[in-house]
Amino acid sequence: MKSKQLTHLDFIVDRLTNSIQNTISGDSFATEVLRLTKVDLKQVTKKRGWNFDWKIELGDNTKEVFKLTIHNNPDVIQGLLSLTLESDHIYMHLLENAPFNMGQNKLYDGVAGNLVAHACKVSFQQGFDGFVSFTAKTKLIEHYEKTLGAYTLGGHRMIIPTLSAQALVDKYFKS
Amino acid sequence: MAHIKEPKGVDFVIASDPLTDEAREEISTFIREYKKKAANKKTRPTSNSKRSKTTRV
Fold first, then answer.
1. Which of A52, A86, A109 has the CB atom closest to B24's CB atom?
2. Residue in chain B lying closest to A50 (CA)
3. Which residues pair with A91 in a beta bridge?
4. What are A10-49's pLDDT values in tens digits?
5. Among A37, A87, A135, A145, which one is least packed by beta carbons within 10 Å?
6. B21 touches chain A (CB under 8 A)
7. d(CA A44, CA B15)
8. What is the Cα–Cα distance from A90 to A163, expressed in whole angstroms?
9. ipTM computed for the complex
Protein backbone atom coordinates (compact mmCIF):
# COMPACT_ATOMS: atom_id res chain seq x y z
CA MET A 1 0.00 0.00 0.00
CA LYS A 2 1.39 3.35 -0.98
CA SER A 3 1.10 6.28 1.37
CA LYS A 4 0.43 9.81 0.19
CA GLN A 5 3.52 11.96 0.00
CA LEU A 6 2.47 15.40 1.12
CA THR A 7 6.00 16.73 0.72
CA HIS A 8 5.53 16.68 -3.02
CA LEU A 9 3.55 19.88 -2.96
CA ASP A 10 6.34 22.44 -3.16
CA PHE A 11 6.74 22.75 -6.90
CA ILE A 12 7.18 26.06 -8.65
CA VAL A 13 4.42 27.34 -10.89
CA ASP A 14 5.83 29.48 -13.62
CA ARG A 15 3.69 31.91 -15.54
CA LEU A 16 2.82 29.83 -18.53
CA THR A 17 1.71 31.64 -21.63
CA ASN A 18 -0.94 29.88 -23.67
CA SER A 19 -4.17 31.04 -25.20
CA ILE A 20 -7.91 30.51 -25.44
CA GLN A 21 -10.14 31.43 -28.34
CA ASN A 22 -13.18 33.69 -28.30
CA THR A 23 -15.99 31.71 -29.91
CA ILE A 24 -17.60 34.81 -31.42
CA SER A 25 -14.66 36.76 -32.81
CA GLY A 26 -12.23 33.86 -33.21
CA ASP A 27 -9.55 35.98 -31.54
CA SER A 28 -7.00 34.24 -29.35
CA PHE A 29 -6.09 35.59 -25.93
CA ALA A 30 -2.92 34.78 -24.05
CA THR A 31 -3.62 33.07 -20.75
CA GLU A 32 -1.91 32.27 -17.48
CA VAL A 33 -2.22 29.36 -15.08
CA LEU A 34 -1.90 30.47 -11.48
CA ARG A 35 -2.72 29.05 -8.08
CA LEU A 36 -6.24 29.64 -6.83
CA THR A 37 -6.33 31.81 -3.72
CA LYS A 38 -8.85 32.33 -0.92
CA VAL A 39 -9.72 35.72 -2.40
CA ASP A 40 -10.73 33.98 -5.65
CA LEU A 41 -13.25 31.78 -3.84
CA LYS A 42 -15.80 34.61 -3.73
CA GLN A 43 -16.36 34.32 -7.46
CA VAL A 44 -16.38 30.51 -7.76
CA THR A 45 -19.49 29.69 -5.77
CA LYS A 46 -22.48 27.52 -6.71
CA LYS A 47 -24.60 30.67 -6.58
CA ARG A 48 -22.52 32.02 -9.44
CA GLY A 49 -23.06 28.89 -11.47
CA TRP A 50 -20.02 26.77 -10.62
CA ASN A 51 -20.83 23.09 -10.17
CA PHE A 52 -18.16 21.98 -7.73
CA ASP A 53 -17.25 23.18 -4.25
CA TRP A 54 -13.83 24.73 -4.86
CA LYS A 55 -13.58 25.87 -1.25
CA ILE A 56 -13.28 22.21 -0.25
CA GLU A 57 -10.66 21.64 -2.94
CA LEU A 58 -8.59 24.61 -1.82
CA GLY A 59 -8.90 23.58 1.82
CA ASP A 60 -7.54 20.09 1.07
CA ASN A 61 -3.80 20.27 1.67
CA THR A 62 -3.13 17.22 -0.48
CA LYS A 63 -4.44 19.03 -3.55
CA GLU A 64 -3.08 21.77 -5.78
CA VAL A 65 -5.72 24.06 -7.24
CA PHE A 66 -5.08 26.17 -10.33
CA LYS A 67 -7.03 28.85 -12.15
CA LEU A 68 -6.81 29.78 -15.81
CA THR A 69 -7.12 33.50 -16.55
CA ILE A 70 -6.54 35.75 -19.52
CA HIS A 71 -3.23 37.57 -19.39
CA ASN A 72 -3.60 40.95 -17.64
CA ASN A 73 -7.10 40.03 -16.51
CA PRO A 74 -6.44 37.86 -13.45
CA ASP A 75 -9.76 38.63 -11.77
CA VAL A 76 -11.91 36.71 -14.24
CA ILE A 77 -11.43 32.96 -13.86
CA GLN A 78 -11.92 30.99 -17.08
CA GLY A 79 -11.56 27.52 -15.59
CA LEU A 80 -10.31 25.61 -12.56
CA LEU A 81 -8.32 22.44 -12.00
CA SER A 82 -7.46 20.46 -8.87
CA LEU A 83 -4.85 17.75 -8.84
CA THR A 84 -2.66 15.65 -6.59
CA LEU A 85 0.91 14.54 -7.02
CA GLU A 86 0.94 10.77 -6.71
CA SER A 87 4.08 8.65 -6.49
CA ASP A 88 4.49 8.32 -10.27
CA HIS A 89 1.88 10.53 -11.93
CA ILE A 90 -0.49 13.48 -11.60
CA TYR A 91 -4.11 12.72 -10.75
CA MET A 92 -6.69 15.28 -11.89
CA HIS A 93 -9.58 15.38 -9.42
CA LEU A 94 -11.74 18.17 -10.77
CA LEU A 95 -11.71 20.28 -13.89
CA GLU A 96 -14.43 22.79 -14.59
CA ASN A 97 -14.96 25.57 -17.10
CA ALA A 98 -16.37 28.85 -15.83
CA PRO A 99 -20.17 28.98 -16.18
CA PHE A 100 -19.85 31.38 -19.12
CA ASN A 101 -17.61 28.84 -20.87
CA MET A 102 -20.17 26.04 -20.65
CA GLY A 103 -22.84 24.98 -23.12
CA GLN A 104 -23.47 26.02 -26.69
CA ASN A 105 -23.09 29.72 -25.95
CA LYS A 106 -19.72 29.43 -24.26
CA LEU A 107 -17.51 32.45 -24.58
CA TYR A 108 -14.11 30.78 -24.91
CA ASP A 109 -12.90 27.53 -26.43
CA GLY A 110 -9.83 25.68 -25.27
CA VAL A 111 -10.08 26.32 -21.54
CA ALA A 112 -10.23 22.67 -20.49
CA GLY A 113 -7.52 21.56 -22.94
CA ASN A 114 -5.33 24.33 -21.65
CA LEU A 115 -5.74 23.13 -18.06
CA VAL A 116 -5.09 19.49 -19.01
CA ALA A 117 -1.94 20.57 -20.83
CA HIS A 118 -0.92 22.37 -17.65
CA ALA A 119 -1.38 19.13 -15.67
CA CYS A 120 0.90 17.39 -18.20
CA LYS A 121 3.44 20.18 -17.82
CA VAL A 122 3.41 19.76 -14.02
CA SER A 123 3.86 16.01 -14.52
CA PHE A 124 7.02 16.60 -16.57
CA GLN A 125 8.27 19.17 -14.04
CA GLN A 126 7.82 16.62 -11.26
CA GLY A 127 9.74 13.94 -13.14
CA PHE A 128 6.63 11.84 -13.88
CA ASP A 129 7.32 11.77 -17.63
CA GLY A 130 4.02 13.48 -18.39
CA PHE A 131 1.71 10.79 -16.99
CA VAL A 132 -1.66 12.24 -15.96
CA SER A 133 -4.64 10.19 -14.83
CA PHE A 134 -8.32 10.99 -14.26
CA THR A 135 -11.82 9.52 -14.33
CA ALA A 136 -13.99 10.24 -17.35
CA LYS A 137 -17.70 10.27 -17.95
CA THR A 138 -18.77 7.48 -20.33
CA LYS A 139 -19.83 9.85 -23.10
CA LEU A 140 -16.48 11.65 -23.02
CA ILE A 141 -14.11 8.65 -23.09
CA GLU A 142 -13.90 8.52 -26.89
CA HIS A 143 -13.43 12.29 -27.02
CA TYR A 144 -10.54 12.14 -24.57
CA GLU A 145 -8.95 9.29 -26.51
CA LYS A 146 -9.07 11.36 -29.71
CA THR A 147 -8.25 14.83 -28.43
CA LEU A 148 -5.93 14.08 -25.50
CA GLY A 149 -4.41 10.81 -26.71
CA ALA A 150 -5.58 9.25 -23.44
CA TYR A 151 -5.74 5.49 -22.84
CA THR A 152 -8.60 3.76 -21.02
CA LEU A 153 -7.72 1.70 -17.96
CA GLY A 154 -10.27 -0.22 -15.90
CA GLY A 155 -13.75 1.29 -15.72
CA HIS A 156 -13.77 4.98 -16.52
CA ARG A 157 -10.23 5.63 -15.45
CA MET A 158 -8.00 7.11 -18.13
CA ILE A 159 -4.33 7.99 -18.42
CA ILE A 160 -2.41 10.37 -20.65
CA PRO A 161 0.97 8.78 -21.42
CA THR A 162 4.27 10.50 -22.17
CA LEU A 163 3.96 10.96 -25.93
CA SER A 164 0.41 12.31 -25.73
CA ALA A 165 1.35 14.59 -22.83
CA GLN A 166 4.29 15.94 -24.79
CA ALA A 167 2.01 16.61 -27.76
CA LEU A 168 -0.39 18.56 -25.53
CA VAL A 169 2.39 20.59 -23.94
CA ASP A 170 3.80 21.36 -27.38
CA LYS A 171 0.36 22.35 -28.64
CA TYR A 172 -0.31 24.80 -25.84
CA PHE A 173 3.00 26.01 -24.54
CA LYS A 174 5.18 26.34 -27.59
CA SER A 175 4.86 29.47 -29.66
CA MET B 1 -1.71 28.15 -31.56
CA ALA B 2 -3.98 25.11 -31.56
CA HIS B 3 -7.00 24.61 -29.34
CA ILE B 4 -8.82 21.49 -28.28
CA LYS B 5 -12.50 22.05 -28.88
CA GLU B 6 -15.23 20.17 -27.10
CA PRO B 7 -17.80 18.32 -29.21
CA LYS B 8 -20.99 20.34 -29.73
CA GLY B 9 -23.35 20.00 -26.80
CA VAL B 10 -20.72 18.35 -24.61
CA ASP B 11 -18.92 20.15 -21.86
CA PHE B 12 -15.43 19.08 -20.99
CA VAL B 13 -15.74 18.44 -17.24
CA ILE B 14 -13.69 16.11 -15.11
CA ALA B 15 -14.99 14.89 -11.75
CA SER B 16 -12.77 11.98 -10.84
CA ASP B 17 -13.56 9.29 -8.32
CA PRO B 18 -11.31 9.24 -5.27
CA LEU B 19 -8.15 7.33 -6.06
CA THR B 20 -8.07 3.95 -4.31
CA ASP B 21 -4.92 1.93 -3.64
CA GLU B 22 -6.15 -0.60 -6.18
CA ALA B 23 -6.49 2.13 -8.80
CA ARG B 24 -3.05 3.51 -7.92
CA GLU B 25 -1.55 0.07 -8.49
CA GLU B 26 -3.38 -0.28 -11.81
CA ILE B 27 -2.04 3.09 -12.96
CA SER B 28 1.49 2.27 -11.80
CA THR B 29 1.37 -1.05 -13.67
CA PHE B 30 0.34 0.77 -16.85
CA ILE B 31 3.16 3.27 -16.42
CA ARG B 32 5.75 0.53 -15.86
CA GLU B 33 4.56 -1.40 -18.93
CA TYR B 34 4.47 1.76 -21.07
CA LYS B 35 8.02 2.68 -20.07
CA LYS B 36 9.20 -0.88 -20.68
CA LYS B 37 7.71 -0.86 -24.19
CA ALA B 38 9.19 2.56 -24.90
CA ALA B 39 12.64 1.36 -23.78
CA ASN B 40 12.37 -1.76 -25.95
CA LYS B 41 11.50 0.38 -28.97
CA LYS B 42 14.60 2.49 -28.40
CA THR B 43 16.96 -0.47 -28.16
CA ARG B 44 15.47 -2.47 -31.05
CA PRO B 45 17.65 -2.16 -34.19
CA THR B 46 16.01 -0.58 -37.21
CA SER B 47 15.07 -2.83 -40.13
CA ASN B 48 17.32 -1.03 -42.60
CA SER B 49 20.40 -1.19 -40.43
CA LYS B 50 23.31 -2.89 -42.14
CA ARG B 51 24.36 -6.25 -40.89
CA SER B 52 28.01 -6.58 -40.15
CA LYS B 53 29.75 -8.93 -42.52
CA THR B 54 31.62 -11.80 -40.99
CA THR B 55 34.46 -13.50 -42.78
CA ARG B 56 35.68 -16.96 -42.09
CA VAL B 57 39.37 -17.36 -41.71
1. A86
2. B13
3. A84, A133
4. 222 233 447 888 889 988 898 999 999 999 999 999 999 9
5. A37
6. yes
7. 16
8. 15
9. 0.81
